[in-house]
Amino acid sequence: MSATPADRRASWFKGVLDLLVLASLTGGESYGYEIAKSLDAAGFGRIKGGTLYPVLNRLEEAALVAAEFRAAEKGPGRRYYTLTDAGRKTLQEQGAQWLAFDASVRKLLNEGGVA
Hints:
The mean pLDDT is 92. This protein is α+β, with helices and mostly antiparallel strands and 115 residues long. It contains 4 helices and 3 strands. A 3-stranded antiparallel β-sheet has the order 1-3-2.
């Protein structure tokens, strides 16, 4: 049984989600819901917390993002994330690798007649 197009897209997305989260923080600090909204607005669809928060935790453990909990005047507090210097370096290095991979995929697909 082959994977459905949605399954393939989910696999591709999981492969690049860490980079997308890092890229979403280049404009400054943000919290989970806002990161999810920015990814949705970029065309990746709605990201559930069960997908996003493990990524944020993993990036924090790897010191690629720093997190700070802040109490709110109204409603629950939020955990704000900022990109660290190591996160910026990782984004540049792995982002360049992803773009080279993407270029190779595009080249072969174009040669194969995919418009």
